[in-house]
Write a structure and sequence with these properties.
Length: 377
Amino acid sequence: MQPRNTIRVASVPSGHVYIRHLDPVPGATAGQAEKLPKVVRLPDPDPDSPDNPATGKWWPPVMLHADWIDANAASFDVFHIHFGFDALDPQDLQDAVTALRRHGKPLIYTVHDLRNPHHNSPEAHNAHLDVLIPGADALITLTAGAAAEIERRWGRTPHVIPHPHVVELDTMEQYVRRAAQTPPGQEFRVGVHVKSLRASMEPLPVIQALLDVARQDGGMVVQVNGHKDVLESGGARYDAGLAHFLTAQAAAGELVLHVHDFLPDDDLWEYLAGLDLSVLPYRFGTHSGWLEACRDLGTAVAAPDCGYYAGQGPVFGYHHDEAGLDPESLKAAVRAARLAGPPEPLPTLARAEQRTVIAAQHAEIYATLLDRSGVLQ
């Protein structure tokens, strides 16, 4: 059967960096990719004016409403959900799934999160997963560990497709060249980013353990970056205890504290590249785009064992979950990272080739579903 040239995907969302990097690198080929249809993703509708494409704003996603699906079914071939459904009632999500069935449109769901990092308890996200995972025609997830949990809980086997690069390839190459020309520093800089605190974060015991290592070992700098809404009084998520602790420790010269608003990408990459080790202070979670950005920039990562972070790429693991932190395991992870030295930067070419393969895998899943439904012909 000769496939048609283009598959139109209603992607929820479309403009997010992860989804943008599901497209092949322009001009690249990877064997079977040349034989597969071109994938075109619909632009995100503007939440304030659903008939118009968004200009950088995609949340809350308009496409997840049954009314939008009914009105726009002729404009797409497959429907692919990634995230953005947090605020929906499970019944509204079920109505969207039912609308897709009504129009014969295959549904693909990429399971990024088995536990929502913004929710204190798992019940609400589980209710969403209980709609999407059984209701999808195909499932994708990022790691073998997450796939095994999905199979155990729902009896479904997802495709395992890794996370593509986060940092743009030309920017990656600049940092790879710079790292090759820069001699190792005398200090070992360890960073914790508290940004706009998520429910999944428990940074205070993590920072305290890092300060213990710095005092015991010497030659180590603990750097904490956080957003103003968390660390300045009057902020929407102001955490007085954390703010007072960090301010006092910074005044005493125990750590370096940077308080700022959301960082533009160029500033964020510069900050991450300036760390020797980035510590993820999570007590629950699944996967991490932050981890992938660190890999792109040649920054080592210390990650907890509560999710499937180690399945994404090499990390220095430590024990941290909802029962609490094992500070000794974190100290051991930091010391192991320091002893190991800077990780080998990921070759930009390898990331580019990986992205092209990832794009081909997605196109093949879409094409197979359409072929199976008799639409692709």
